[in-house]
Each structure stands twice: as structure tokens, then as C-alpha cells.
Amino acid sequence: MKILFSLLFISPFLVAAQYSDPNIGKPTSGYGSDGTFTVASESFNNDHYNGQNIVVFHPQEISTPVPTIFYSHGYGGNNPIYIKGLTDFVAKKGYALVFVPYQTLGVTVLERYENLLDGFRKAARDYPNIIDTTRAAFMGHSFGGGASFGNAFTCFTENNWGSNGRFIYVSAQWYSYNIDQNQLQNFPNDVKLITEIYESDSTNDHRLAADIFRNISISNAEKDFLVLQRDTVGGYVYPADHNTPNTVIALNAHDYYGIYRLLDALADYVWNGNVAAKDVCLGNGSTAQVTLPAGLKPILQTDSPDITRPMASYQFPCDSTINLRIGYCDLLNSVSEGQLTGWDIFPNPIKNSFDVRTDLELTEIHLLDVSGHNLPVQYCKTNFGYQLEIGNLSDGVYLLQTNLGTARLIKYGN
Q1: Is-above-0.85 flag for pTM?
Q2: Which of 246, 154, 146 is nearest to 191 (CA)?
């Protein structure tokens, strides 16, 4: 499948910006503060993309393998200068980061994913003196955020990367094409996850991030869904838009306190076993996690993201036909389990059967597909309500209409 994206053209003559926040200085200690190592890099041929080399950034003073982040950039961001703030921060802290450029035009989404995956594996294979694959993380932005889950699943399960510590950190993610519901439901249970969206992002529907976050089988204790909020302090705008973070424009407090600080603590928690660091990176809304300096609006945290902004306000909405997970979109006109009156549904999504839990009597039950066709459904009375069987139906979205109300069902795993 080939998909046309809108391209963001950035002048090749731009030089990476320095920290330029007029209100707030960089952290000088603790998580988010710069490390002490010198940034070194190794550049080598990209087998899938001539002229666009793969680069490994690492701490020059360390001669043994270090924990490594495998980074997937946003669409069109093939030059690592666009994330220089991040690559420098990671290497100065004593870790490595692998940057793999991928093609934008003339290839399919899955071919881009393959480019990334093969590049990550080549780096690990050719630089074992730098990269410690037993302590591995996948990080991605936008298109790269969507790609990170499938590539991480492959490397975690097939190659056993991250056996001594692994996490995923994605932001403003696009659609995910390389992972199915069964794989999401069987994700390695020791993976930690931060999913971050930006309040003013009008490019990628926030439901894309919420969908994967809700469906991935990582416990709520080890994952957090975060919202970085737009703000203005002293006339200076912190946009929290799709280009966050963007080293080419400027480094500011949102970069260091809203992203790097969390990444720093997450690495310390996962790779160094520092349990105290969890309160910062996966604090479930703790003060240490969400508070930003100088009166900046705090980060918002939730374990149950509920996106209310209309899908039509995004360039890439969840209900687009190019979304392979369109059936998992949180449709605005649907009724969620928390909104049902006098009854609820469990589980949902559904594999074979589900329960309608209610003390009321169901006198009318209709099951409809997305085209409005009435489907046969078997049900029986139980001690806590009713049990319905839909194991014979194909995976997808269905509508349950009853005398108590209407609810949207998601069927998977057939």
C-alpha cells in the first residue's frame, strides 16, 4: 500500500538550535540534566536507502556495550540534525542511539518498516562493542511512533532484545501497520511504556495513540499516557504541536522537562534498576512526574485516555480508510462501557463471548454489522445478567441494540 503524505520541507541550511528558553534554564541536576560524556558517532551504509547513512550515537569514553535506543524518526525527517538535542542528550548520559533514515517516496509503509528493522539489526550486528541489545528500547515520533510497536515486538520476541531491561517511548504517533491485535495482547509483560501526545497536534489523531495504549498488554502500573499542554509564559509560546520536540526550531523547557527528563528517569528505572526513578517516569500522575517549572501547565496523565476532540480536526483521523485499526477507533457517537445506564459489557474487545451485566430484563436484543445488517446472536440468562456468543463472527466492529440502550462492540481473535 502506498500512501501520500503531506511533506514538511525544512531548509538544509538550518543549523541545530541551541537551548533558547527565555523563561526557564536547562536542568542543572537530576533527571533531564545533561550528562558528562562526549558525543561520538559511527556512520555506515544503509542497504535500503543509498546516500542516507545509518548513524550510531554513543558516549566516546565508554569502551564496553551500553544500553541502546533504536529511534524511528517522523516522515521526511531523514537528517539526524532534526533531533540533535535528543541524540546529544542520550549519548552524554552514557547510552547509545541508533538512527535509521527510511525512504519517503516510491515505497510502501511496510517497506519503510523493513528499512528501519534491517537497519537496527545491522547496527546491532556490526557494532557489538557499542550496542548492548540485552538493554534495549524503541523510541519513535509520528510515523516512527506507529512503527515502533511492531518492530519492538519483533526484536523483543524473535531476537530477545531487552532481556535485561526494555521500554518503548512514543510521541504523536501515526497509524500502526506492522502489529495485529493478537500481538498487542501478547506483548512481553516486562516492557515499560510511555505514550505522549501534544495538545496542539493537528496532524495525527490522538486516538491512534490511545488505541494502541489501551490494547497493549502492559499493566497500568508500567505504562502511562501523557499529554504535554500548550502554554504561554512571559509572551513566549510553548506550542506543544506536532513538531515537538524540534531541535531545528528551538530547544526549550518542554524538550528538557517534558521529554528528556522522563526518558532519563525511564532509562534509569529500566536499565539501572533504580526504583525511585519510577515516580518520575511512570508516576501515575505523581507530582514528580507531571510538575513543570516556572508555572508551566503540568503534564496530564491517565491510564484510560478518552479523546473528545473531533476526528475531522486532524490531518490523519482515526476513522480514515488507511487506518488498518479503524475498528478500534473511539467513535464519538458510540456508547462506551462507562456511559451505559443500568448495564455494562465485559469484556470488550471480545474474542468469543461476552456478558451483559445487569439486574434489568433484556426484552430486545439486536446485533448489527457496520452496514446495518441484522445478525443472528445466541444468548442465555445467567446469575449476573446475560451471556452472548459471537465466536462465529469475523473480527470487526458491531452494534448491540437492546431495550436498555446501544453499545459498540469490538470483535477480535477469530
Answers
A1: no
A2: 154
